[in-house]
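Hey, can you fold this?
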Amino acid sequence: MNQEEIKSILESYRTVAVVGLSRDPDKASYRVAQYLQSMGYRIIPVNPFVDQVLGEKSYKSIRDVPETIEVVDIFRPAESVPPIVEEAIQLKNRVGSPKVIWMQLGIVNEEAARRAKEAGFKVVMDRCMMMEHKRLRQGKPSS
């Protein structure tokens, strides 16, 4: 995915389900979600082990989220990505279904990415949504 496509995603989609969002402020998922929330994004925590994060109700899975999800931002190990992508695919016919699968920095699952693309999702892999947003704001190209 090139920088223009990432820019388009960050500017077009404002509702982000963060799968694996920790309530621990020292974890990357928390810091990234907190930053995105401070930049005006609607953050929806998805973590079956917490009730609330960043002042938002947490859901057990993206299937349980009763509102529009535009980006599924994944903070789970690469081997945990395929079932999350399958859930997103199951939501494709629902109003307000996700448009983007975003695997955070260090997360690469080519098979899940292929399945998501075949189902019509935009896919970002091995990139940090916060870092990309900061680059966009500063006008710097991605490395």
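Oh, and this one too while you're at it.
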Amino acid sequence: MINNKIIAIIPARGGSKRIPNKNIKSFAGQPIISYSIKAAQETNLFDRIIVSTDSEEIAEVVKSYGVDVPFIRPAELADDFTGTVPVLLHVLNWLNKHGFSPDYYCCIYATAPFVQPEFIRKGFDVLKKKKATVAFSVTTFPYPIFRALKIGDDDRVKMFWPEHENSRSNDLPEAYHDAGQFYWGNTKRFLTEKKLFSSDSVPVILPRYLVQDIDTPEDWETSEKMYSVLQMDKIK
């Protein structure tokens, strides 16, 4: 690596509805955002780690972990409908205006307590090796999606793809979904394309036991139980 400037961006909005104060809520004894911060720090890759938030409360919490909060995010980028892309564009454009133009960025979600430094590093290696625009975390579905079912208006079960009713699982292609942990990108290309999912995206495959979406209280409870088991496994 030749003097590349690399930045981590952790979006952390303050107005979560389903899980109040979600991004700084205690998860296994620590604010959940702290796991993303520590994983980023332990990679030793980043020139700066920035948290983009609209919340003074979140800003105070994350500053205690030694990360940058160079601005409070504008309200128009902090509503229920603002996606990740506008937030990243805002951070990168703000940095450019203030004399710091990173070559690469890594967006790490604030509610990703299973994110591991080794996989973040792997993402950067894959991005460079493949000369890709984006590299992001994915994992496999636990069951073949081509045999997925739906319930019709008549309360009867139907297959999405009835042509696979008799297909063997072994004969169906592996399917993946976004793991929702991190997204590496080439800054110059991202500022042009303005997309996280590009036709030039490459995967960083994670094991399923390190992936859990956290959108509801039930997800939160499930995640804490998973985390507890993983910690117990480390002690063995």
